[in-house]
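re: ur question from yesterday

yeah so i grabbed the chain u mentioned. its 223 aa long if i counted rite. heres the sequnce exactly as i have it in my notes:
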Amino acid sequence: MTSPVTLDRRDGPYGEVVLRRRAEHYEIIANGTFLMDTSDGRSERLLVDAALGALPEASRSGASVLVGGLGVGFSLAHAAAEPRWRRIVVAEREEAIIDWHRQGPLAAISGAALADPRTVILHTDLVEHLRTTTDTYDALCLDIDNGPDWTVTEDNESLYSAEGLATCAARLNPGGILAVWSARPSADFEESLRNAGFSGVRTEEIPVARGVPDVVHLAVRPG
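ran it thru and got these structure tokens back, copy pasting raw so excuse formatting
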């Protein structure tokens, strides 16, 4: 395997974040934990497609979506390629990651999406944004951890709690979709979604070369 080359390393309020290149691909590492890379964006694209497809048909044109966070940009780029999204808001707490998209090598993935007038980038913590904003969305596409059972920082654990899921529901319009990316399925999280009052709880899988599949957990805020 090709050894990675560190392109940038930053210390921020949540710890260290690193951008590396391995052969032709880029990797993001947070506090020593691998987050994502540009080798395969199928599950990030599924996150957006599954949310749009789960919306009531009448809501799919002119829908608004909150993507959290920016990552390597696959979810944002895929959303911007879909004309039915009327508004695309991205919450990203790491200034370094935003910089890598605006001025660095990840602009090759997200440049067109960032220039799209429908796109708004918020330099903010997703959990805090959900708690404090009064904006509502038709879909929340959340990809800030390796999953509900494997968070990047302890603060993120509250997002998957009963209180956090109630906050997500409050930020969704009636019939809106909560879509959560995970590196592995979580039956416990599915049960938490049902207990929080969501309906239509299901999981879509993306097979990977080794190990358990990546998944997108989907749930509907009842109308």
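noticed a couple things. The longest strand covers residues 172-182. also Helices lie at 42-54, 74-80, 95-102, 107-115, 126-132, 162-170, 187-195.
anyway ttyl
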